[in-house]
Design brief:
Blueprint lengths: L8 H17 L5 E5 L2 E4 H17 L4 E4 L3 E4 L4 E9 L1 H5 L6 E8 L2 E9 L4 E6 L3 E4 L2 E2 L12 E4 L8 H16 L4 E3 L4 H9 L5 E4 L4 H13 L3 E3 L13 E4 L4 H20 L4
Helix pairs in contact: 1-2, 4-7, 5-6
Length: 275
């Protein structure tokens, strides 16, 4: 099944409005542990249920993937991907860096995305070949050309099983970036990381992970704003990529090279018994 994503943008906007209202008006409620330092709130589940039910009525032919309850049903090559509260830890602590992220994936590629940050009054949206906007105004990626003048956001460190092993390259990369870029930031929300690359608020974002509910909306918004979005090796990003690197196009080659060098050094140190 192929659908012009532009025709679904109003539906996605309405779905995200439902979610945003819940996030703004409800307290986190009961916390459900999902693993080591990983949790979901009552609001996460309330948002996912409300959005899923709305989309099932409006687009019954399209599948749905939610962070909390997984794939409810699959569509003919099309799938909604929802993070009901991206930045749950921030939300729990009253930090306003959180929001809802809804993307539409066709095969392995996002074609539509809406991100709403209810406590910041910001909504980002994009559809393939339409461009990206923030609160209705066109946005564009920054023109940064050098790492030393770039603000770079990094994804959260790993928690849970094998966290120490998975954090070795993250910590090494943090150290290398800190020595080369203007400033490092960790916002705790993949949606914010990608939306703010699109909006030119930051110059690059590096996440050594790629969950569809985290990245689908942000990837298409960043791309439509002119960002380059790639995997670890610099190949075009898809929902099966190992990592998510989004940046001003002039920065991507340097970032990919830096990440490759850092990962090689981590492997060498581990094999040499240094870590």
């Amino acid at each position: 099944m192929t659908i012009d994503a532009r025709t679904l943008l109003p539906i996605a906007e309405r779905a995200v409005s439902i979610a945003s209202d819940i996030i703004r008006t409800k307290a986190p409620g009961v916390i459900t542990a999902k693993g080591d330092r990983d949790m979901a709130t009552e609001v996460d589940y309330a948002v996912e249920h409300a959005v899923r039910e709305f989309l099932a009525r409006e687009t019954p032919e399209i599948g749905f993937l939610g962070e909390e309850e997984g794939v409810i049903h699959s569509g003919g090559g099309l799938m909604w991907a929802l993070d009901p509260v991206d930045g749950t830890a921030n939300f729990l602590h009253g930090i306003p860096l959180c929001g809802v992220s809804l993307g539409l994936i066709e095969k392995d590629t996002p074609t539509l995305g809406v991100i709403d940050l209810p406590f910041l009054g910001l909504r980002y949206s994009a559809a393939e070949n339409v461009g990206a906007s923030a609160n209705g105004s066109v946005i564009q990626v920054s023109e940064a050309r050098e790492l030393q003048s770039a603000i770079v956001a990094i994804g959260d460190y790993a928690v849970g099983e094998n966290a120490d092993e998975r954090n070795r390259p993250r910590l090494a990369l943090t150290q290398e970036l800190a020595a080369r870029v203007q400033r490092l930031r960790m916002f705790g929300s993949a949606a914010i990381d990608l939306a703010w690359v699109a909006d030119g608020r930051i110059d690059a974002n590096i996440m050594l992970s790629n969950n569809p509910w985290d990245t689908a909306a942000g990837v298409i918004i960043a791309r439509e704003a002119g960002a380059a979005v790639v995997d670890l090796d610099g190949s075009p990003h898809s929902m099966t990529a190992h990592a998510t690197i989004a940046a001003s196009p002039k920065l991507v080659a340097d970032l990919v090279e830096l990440i490759a060098e850092t990962r090689k050094a981590v492997v060498f140190d581990r094999m040499s018994g240094l870590t």
